UniProtKB/TrEMBL annotation:
Transmembrane stretches, start-end: 6-26, 33-53, 59-83, 142-162, 195-214, 226-252
Source superkingdom: Bacteria
Organism listed in the record: Micromonospora sp. CCTCC AA 2012012
Name of the protein: Branched-chain amino acid ABC transporter permease
Family annotation (PANTHER family): AMINO ACID ABC TRANSPORTER PERMEASE PROTEIN, BRANCHED-CHAIN AMINO ACID TRANSPORT SYSTEM PERMEASE PROTEIN LIVH
Amino acid sequence: MTIANAVINGVLLGALYALFACGLSLMFGVMRIINLAHGDLAVLGAFAVWLIATQAQVSPFLALAVALPVMLVLGYLLHRVLLGPSLRGGELTPLLTTFGLAIVVQNLMLQIFSPDVRSLGAAAGEISVGSWRVNDQLTVPYFGLLVLAVAVALLGGLEILLRRTRPGREMRATAQDAETAELVGIPAESVYAKATALAVGTATLAGAFLAMHATFDPSSGPTQLIFAFEAVVIGGLGSLRGTLVGGMVLGVAQTVGATIDPQYAILAGHLVFLAVLTGPRGRLTVLRSVRA
């Protein structure tokens, strides 16, 4: 793989990381919660799409359209039943709650689906394996282009939602000061629940694309959480535009590292994350987390 090929494929891989990171960034930006169950919720969404696609013998894209509303409702209820009460328990309680949720979700998936590895690549059809051959050294996978287009549309749409619509302005006002927002008639709990629903919905979308791009099993969640967290930190915690850039930087680091030596693929991404974390942007991120 040439460097140019590695960079292009890294950008496309980074778009998938950005999709995973989107919900994580949204929940931190609105609620100041780092959701440790985010990766497991994405894998749960992948299993929901896989279950519908295999049982009903339909395309994974159609199965995703069915699973998405269910996961949005699950996200809304998740806040009402679990995260909302934990927010009133102090700064550490939501973090521990999402940690416990991650363990429960992962073990439930193990019990229901077994540890077997699964994939929706074959069911997705030609788009999952086809590519555009630019020249002998450069190819661009169709599926990567699809993920990139969806990531740009999703993150751009959420950015417009937050800045130019009434629900978005309510989310930003609640994120700034929930108590003051309630004084002017904004129901903070409802805003938080809607933000959680959106986060779980985007996680489901990312999980479905993961299932079509690679294999997955009930223990895949923590790995995806790490990549999502690294993308969020590289791009700036709470920034949707930064999340897209952060995902691409992480993806390019991994593919360029793999070009040098396949063993360096994951390590190269971690090194970039560490470099950002110890730099001025990382110190600012830590400072914001402490203040939150």
